[in-house]
Amino acid sequence: MRVDATVAEIMDVLRGLGKVPPYVQSVEGADDEIRAAIDLRQIPKAPSPLKLAARLVPVMRAGVKLESFNAGVAIAAVDASAGGLPAHKLLAFLEAPVAKVLAAQKLPPDSIQILPNARVSVDMHAVIAAKYPALAGLKITELAISGGQVHAVATV
Predict the structure, then answer these.
(1) Total-model pTM
(2) pLDDT for the residue numbered 93
C-alpha cells in the first residue's frame, strides 16, 4: 500500500483523533522538511530549566529532515531555534524528559532515541505496535519527505 499525504492532511487526521498536544502551535511541510512551532509554556510537567527558558523565549521553532529510513527506523536531523538561539544543540539534554514522555505514552523506552549531532531515531514499527495494536503487523518499507508531502509504502 502506498500513501502520499501532505503534512497538513496528516495533521488534520491527528487533530481529529485528539493526538496533537495543545503545545503544538503549528506543523507544516516545506520541501523535504517538516517544520513545527512549539509553545514551551504549554508543556505539562516541564522540567525547571525548560520552564525558565519558556519565560524568556516562549516559542521554539524546529525543522526536521529525514536523513535515512531502514528496517522501520527513521533517522532525522533536527534544527531548532528559540528566540534565534540554536536550541537543537541542547537536544542531548532532553534524553531524560523524552524517556518520561515515552513511559507516559506507554511506548517502548528505546523507540525514540536522541543521537549525537542533533539527530533523532524513531523506530516506527515499535511506535505503531505500541500505540495502535490493531496495526502491529504493519511494516513501513519506504518513507520519504518531499515537496511538503510524506510518502510511505507499507505492507501488512
Answers:
(1) 0.84
(2) 65
Count of domains in the chain?
Answer: 1
* Residue found by looking up cell 533517522 in the block: 75
H or E element at residue 129: helix 124-131
Pairing of strands 73-82, 85-86: antiparallel
Please list, in sequence order, all residues whose beta carbon lies within 8 angstroms of the beta carbon of residue 85, skipping any fewer than 6 positions away: 57
Q: Which domain holds residue 139?
A: 2-155
Q: What are phi and psi of 152, to 5 degrees?
A: -140, 150
For residue 129, the number of C-alpha atoms closer than 13 Å in the C-beta half-sphere is 14
146 pLDDT tier (thresholds 50, 70, 90): very high
Contact assessment for residue 88 and residue 97, using Cβ atoms and an 8 Å cutoff:
no
DSSP for residue 131: H
